[in-house]
């Protein structure tokens, strides 16, 4: 059974005055990436996103780079938003 498309409403995050977002234990799953896309695309006042990527950089450099590159490519509604790892 197909779901009917609902009209896009205004996201409650678009009115939030959040300037700093701290993410811990980020593993780069599809669900986490979707959530980050939602945050970055709706938090208009966001200046800093601090992401603690839960990957051993010494043992799995390729995975760490894939995760951080994917986050850096996400569109941001705030032109002042910087992502730190």
Q: Output the number of helix runs.
A: 2
Radius of gyration: 15 Å
Strand order of the largest sheet: 1-2-3
Please give the number of β-strands: 3
Strand content: 15-25%
Instruction: Give the end-to-end Cα distance, rounded to a whole number of Å.
Output: 42 Å
Largest sheet: 3 strands, parallel
Assign an overall shape: elongated
* Class from helix and strand fractions: alpha/beta
**Fraction of helical residues:** 25-40%
From N to C, what is the helix and strand string? EHEHE
Overall pLDDT score: 89
Compile the SSE list and pairings:
Blueprint: E1 20-26, H1 30-42, E2 48-53, H2 61-72, E3 82-84
Parallel strand pairs: 1-2, 2-3
Structure notes:
With 85 residues, the protein is of the alpha/beta class. The protein has a three-stranded parallel β-sheet with strand order 1-2-3, with helices on one face. The chain is elongated and about 40 Å long.
Summarize the structure.
The protein is an alpha/beta fold.
Annotation keywords:
single chain; 85 residues; alpha/beta
